[in-house]
Design goal:
Order of helices and strands: HEHEHEHEHEHEEEEHEHHEE
Number of strands: 12
Strand order of the largest sheet: 2-1-3-4-5
CATH topology of the largest domain: Rossmann fold
GO biological process, one term: regulation of DNA-templated transcription
Distance between the termini: 47 Å
Keywords: DNA-binding, Phosphoprotein, Transcription, Transcription regulation, Two-component regulatory system
CATH superfamily of the largest domain: Response regulator
Shape: elongated
Number of helices: 9
GO molecular function, one term: phosphorelay response regulator activity
InterPro entries: CheY-like_superfamily, OmpR/PhoB-type_DNA-bd, Sig_transdc_resp-reg_C-effctor, Sig_transdc_resp-reg_receiver, WalR-like, WH-like_DNA-bd_sf
Largest sheet: 5 strands, parallel
Length: 256
Amino acid sequence: MEELTSKEVKQEVSSGIGVDLDQVDGQERQRILVIDDEADTSYLLKQILRIAGYNVLSAANGAEAIKKTMEYSPNLILLDIMMPEMDGWQTFEYLKRMTNVPVIVVSALTSKDHIVDGLRQGIDDYIPKPFYNAEVIERVNAVLRRTNRPQEITRLVFPSVGLTIDLINQEVELLGNSIRLTPKEFSVLSVLAKNAPAIVPYEKISHLVWGEDSSDVRKRTKYLIYLLRQKFDKISSGSQLILNVDRLGYKLQTEN
């Protein structure tokens, strides 16, 4: 297979190949997240992967990548290193805390030291830029065959506000400080976090946390929200992480 230009890739895209998850939420094929701040590179990688039969989605920075990882649980991530604000290594550190999804670095940093350092940090492979299209596919296939592990999001991470929620151990950290929550407090917070940044209706919270909806249940939820705010406020005064949207529900504030 010869290397294709971006224009040639566009000509090969048809309705019979993998789905672009930025446009349609396809779920059956394996999902690959491309993280790169260069739009042309991101587009080219996505189309190469679609032609190979994968569903794809992209993120232009680390914060967007973390959000999409939580939302879509990709089977594999292709990660650029030189990105503004949150670089690839910082993004990788957050991703490692969240999930065991395999990561292939695709970077213009091609020195042996960079490659070895990346492998030591736990990445699954390293593809130098400029890349050959066929090599990208073969390396993707090889990593997926080798890892062959179920992908599970074990932590929800919101770097903009310094919040980490461990779904397995039911542990919460805010700005590096551990917060002890009761099981019901954790249930309310996890419902808001899993749906962030969307507003979660009162009725939905009631059913997910208590299994029913009534005025008494909503009062209990309101009290739990009050307790959560008090605990957050002890660490970050006036943080307002949980917002009440009048007559609609609550939402977790995940951006400063």
